[in-house]
Sequence to fold (774 residues):
Amino acid sequence: MTPTAVAEHIDLFRERFADITREVACRIVGHDEIVANTVTSLLAGGHVLLEGIPGVGKTTLVHTLAEVLDLKFSRIQFTPDLMPADIVGTQIVQERPHGGTFFEFQPGPIFANVVLADEINRATPKTQSALLEAMQDISVTVGKTTYRLEQPFLVLATQNPIEMEGTYPLPEAQLDRFFFKLRVEYPAEASMHEILDRTTQPADISVRRIVDSSQILEMRQIARAVPIAKPVQTYAIRLTLGTHADSPYAPPLVKKYSRYGASPRAAQTIVLASKIHALRQGHAFVSIDDVRAVALPALRHRVLLNFEGEAEQVNPDTLVNELISTLAS
Amino acid sequence: MNESLSPAQLVRTVVADAARRRQSLAALRQVARWAPIVAAGLAGIALVARVAAWPGLLVIALLVAAALAAGGYLARARRHQASTDVMAAAIDHDAGFGGELRSAHWFATRQAADPWTSFHLGHAARRVQDTNWATVYPPVRATRAWIATAALTLLSVLIPFTLPGRAPFWPGALSATSAPVLSLESLPEELRQQVVDAVVAVTKGEISAEDAVATLLQSDAFNALPPDAQRQVAELLQKARLDGSSKVFAGATGEAVSAEAARWAKENLDMLYTGKDDPADPGDKPFTSEKQEQSDKRNEYTEDGASGGEGEASDFQSSTRVRMKPQGNPESSQPMPMTGAPDASGEAGSSFGGKHGDVRYGTTKASELAAAFRQEIVEADMNTNGSSRESDARRRTEQSRSALTYTRVAGQVSFDRARVDAPRSVPEARRPLVERYFVRERDDR
Fold:
């Protein structure tokens, strides 16, 4: 590859990324950053946990994204009686034409490119854990057989932060498997006007396909090729370490309210997301600003509060923002 | 772009140059900030130096030191240093490279064959070359600071030379002119000859130094001298006695003795005043040490002034007791204790046997009194007539009452068996009791 080819790759990545977000924005109003971070997660091979109140467009966002990316989409509505087999699939008995029976695997909704796990915290931990292998290894095991999932594979889970009765909060191990945790905020008044204009008219807004799965995989390769200098990587590592209360990089708030900090997977997340963020800017390098831009969604769900933090209802975002603002580059 | 340099080299070079420029500008900014303050301080010191009569050279030395410090600081900031990531980050921030220069600098210090890295370095090299570094690091414009510094510096230099009543420029000149020194040439011709004759006589051992002083005290010209000058002559005579003919006459004989003694006196008068050791014989002890060696030789009686009752003696006479040498019938002279008796002369407690000049008895200043006491102690030390228990005890008693600082340690008292009284004899009536007490019978049981 020549430097000219590198420049072409950067331009290609940048244009495709901009096209995707622009097309999604045709239907999703006021959530540009959410859309960009969701696409970033997809291109990094990660999964996204969307947290927001009902009716703010979480499910619509996932639907639109699947359409724009021309990917196979499935939706799983998590309920307390949902069973793991309802997600990964099950063996069913089939009759042979000439007599006899055999077991045939019936794939579950997990066998898709974009899986919407709606209200994931309403299912039991046993069912939630059925997603673990799929999210981490991009494969599911039924009986003695392991089935590979088709790439790209993206799990978009949603949860409602206010209606917590009868829910099962996600365990730390499962939370750590989400690349980003994105908070979908209530739209502003101007955005509300736009939403109403688009959704209350006879004509439905259609979106066009921008990229397919092979182009997404190509973008993933481009993203991973971006070089990162050691000082910048050091900063990403220190950000991760700074979420631990006993770390020398931890600010006072973290020392006071953090029970456990982010795992090394968080550092991987930050570096990968930084590379994609740099490419979005048309850069062939990763800067400290790129790291800072992606640190909050990468770290907020990986910081576990201690008793004091829970009692005082401290927002983990506050701790992460404090860390970002105080850690010297 | 310098075609001979690769992008990596160019990035490293630019970062190093920019770092040096940045540091030197920062140093210059610091100097421009502190220079007026330092110059003002120096001007203040120059003013204080005028008031306190400090040497003018002090301000000049401080100016030179400040200039050297500023120059060293600037030179240190301008020196070539290996570029670091911290430098690159700072330059990146200043030039608004958005992290590209810092990242490129890090890759430039490594061997990178990756096309992405090459692209990154090439892009960064083009950007740093297109950057106008004079805009990024503009020259320091601190005109007011420089003007203020120059004005204050000029003021600091001018103050020591222009203000009236300035102190002597050289520290040596200050000490040389601050107090008069008695020189042999300044003495009247008659007195000069008397001093030289006294030196010759003392050196030859014809008379003692005290007698020579007593003889000089009979001269009006000597009495007209200030007390310090009189004391200086007395010490000169003591030194002549201690140095002996080998030093004073330097081997001269006959008529040349007087000339040699005059030369010796001339040299040693200055030396006595400044407290220097004999330049011709650096191995000798200072004269004051010689005097202390005579501490065990004390005189029991001193003449209380020349004529205490008459009140004609000089201040020097009253403050420097001269040992009274018995002449003719020893009983004819009235021995007087060293401490001035209330009825001897002056007022009680003054311990002055006479009066002289403007010294008033009973109203004498404390400093003069202290000087008189100190001189008395010195003269007592110089006495060579031996000591007695009574005189030692009396002196110690005086010293213990005195508020003056007593620096000399009294000589060690040696035990003289001959002066020990025999113990009282035991009465005969008690002898058996004593024997029984000290001589125990042997118990054979």
Q: What stands out?
A: The domain at 1-225 of chain A is CATH 3.40.50.300 (Rossmann fold). The mean pLDDT of chain A is 87.
